[in-house]
Amino acid sequence: MDVTRAVQDFFMGHHIPKGVSNTLIVLIPKNDNPSSYSEFRPICLSTFISKICTKVMVTRLKSVLPKIISKQHAGFMANRDIADQVLIAQELMHNIDKKVRGSNFVVKLDMSKTFDKVSWHFLSLMLLKFGFCHQFVQLIMNHLQATFLSVLVNGSPQGFFKPFRGVKQGDPLSPFLFIIASEAFSRGLHWMMQEGRIQPFWMGGNGITISHLGFAYDLLVFLNGESRSLLNFKAFLSSYEGASDQEINLDKSSILRGKAASYRKARIKNLLGMKLTDLPVKYLGVNLHKRINRFQFCGNLIKQFENKLTPWKQKNLTHGGRLILIKHVLSSLPLHILAVDLLPKKVINVLNRKLASFFLGSNNDRKKAHWITWAKLCYPTVEGGLGIRSLTDLEKAFILKLWWKWKTGDSLWARFIQARYNRNENMIPKVADSPVWRRICCVHEMASSLISTDAGGIVTWNEEENGQFTFKSAFEEVRDLSFSSIIYQQIWDSQLELKMKIFQWKIVKGIVPIIDKLQRFNKILSPSMCPM
């Protein structure tokens, strides 16, 4: 009852008690050996009542934000996919070398301590500009201004101090306040390009002009390298910094260059004060490149696998434990890449070998025989496998998903691709087409057989009763099939422990290491061994 009254008092505009507004700051290290404050991430631990109040405001904001936040911004927004940001960026990178006066450039902006530097005055002006009532804006300001912060040092709070700007990292409301404040950047840049003060990134032919892409504080700006355009862009950045209190970290920001002349690259570097970098470059966890993904671009993914596997190999895990880790941890690591790009076959082979060796219990000191191929382990359990999803089949299913989004979607990426490749259903790719469009063209014939279109032009997915696309049904369409057996179903439906189910499965598959099986591997057996 007291909690309910406290929340009601907050929304009636009453003063927030200090005990409710007190917030502890805990510093989370960004790496294994932090040596400066910049290598820590401050997370705020708010009180229970404070989080209830902000959660209620978030629920109200969520329904409104998609109407006021630009389509180019996808962070913290419902029904906006992070994969779309990467796909659009990849499409633009494919055209970075287009011959155009001034040359195409991409600026990767890094904002320094973004949440900590949000100006409260600027935020309130933005909220009022978007039409939020004074009462709601005042509630947000009361919440921010009543905050008292204390830093946790060795588990103990040290002192209290009041902030004068910024939003609390870890508070449910903070991400939404940040994107409202940063919408000034999106609209300002869009206006500058509409007015011709900043020349846009030239794609050639049809297409929607993309000025920038944003996901939280990760920003990519696409523009032309003409001198006047760059000067206006620099002035715009200065104006935005002055109004919002945000600060661009020039040391971490960079300029992605194409085949522009050397003097032009030097000029843009000196003008913006940022370093020049070449592709590939990492954006939202995925490498952006101009053509196809290569083995040398995937070193981080392979290293992620090794970092996960190294401590696990030192533990005496059963086959059941290893299977759970493979299905629910390791197999999910490459999904964010497979959703937007193809992995080289060499990379897939390396990952499959690591998965197979881990499941069998191999390590650097001890190699174990592979009694069954990895491909057979990737069948569903009723078909004699272990239900591990093949990376190759996942890749194919994600391409089908891209095709469906292109065919039926209304996202920024879907509209961008539809406008750029508007060829009246001519699905024969051209030499200059991007790798993403080529993949869509490759599955067009198969995907078209899986849909129906009614008289009103509404497309339905035939593999689901409700007509909606699901990744599961797409995966079933592209994977290799095998014969199902009731024996396997009985094994996996039993109430036995997982390790016993796997042992029974081994017996049925004939891969238990008995004498006649060991002789296949030229094992020298002791005469005293059991004759089995």
TrEMBL record:
It comes from Cuscuta europaea (European dodder). The lineage of its organism: Eukaryota, Viridiplantae, Streptophyta, Embryophyta, Tracheophyta. This is Reverse transcriptase domain-containing protein. SUPFAM superfamilies: DNA/RNA polymerases. It comes from the Eukaryota. It holds the Pfam family RVT_1. InterPro entries: DNA/RNA_pol_sf, RT_dom. Residues 9-288 form the Reverse transcriptase domain.
